[in-house]
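Structure first, sequence second, as always.
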């Protein structure tokens, strides 16, 4: 694991770089500038839903919270459907092309190309 993700010393005491470079797997900036407070969307939803139901909800309270959640999801989906979708960006096109090459590239080469695509994303506009 150390050799793959962190890097390690070889028998001569020289440092060997990891197989996957840091910019390929560190997502700190992506979560730092993201509007979500967690990297796990399900965790965020669970926290919100538990807040709406309370600690020990009755069946009626649970049902009301569930219906409220369904209504919110339907409203969100309707808003998304009404919003005109922009043309895919250059990065989205490059990523789609790379996904079509899956299985034809080595794992390292595949992750290198993903890293090249995503390392240039500017998340500063989210702050």
């Amino acid at each position: 694991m150390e050799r793959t993700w962190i890097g390690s010393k070889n028998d001569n005491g020289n440092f060997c770089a990891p197989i996957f470079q840091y910019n390929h797997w560190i997502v700190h900036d992506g979560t730092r500038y993201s509007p979500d407070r967690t990297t796990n969307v399900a965790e965020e939803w669970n926290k919100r839903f538990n807040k709406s139901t309370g600690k020990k909800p009755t069946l009626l309270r649970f049902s009301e919270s569930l219906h409220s959640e369904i209504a919110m999801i339907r409203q969100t989906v309707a808003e998304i459907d009404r919003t005109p979708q922009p043309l895919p960006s250059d990065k989205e096109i490059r990523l789609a092309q790379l996904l079509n090459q899956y299985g034809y590239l080595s794992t390292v080469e595949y992750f290198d190309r993903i890293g090249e695509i995503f390392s240039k994303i500017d998340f500063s506009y989210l702050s």
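Margin note: The chain has a mean pLDDT of 77.
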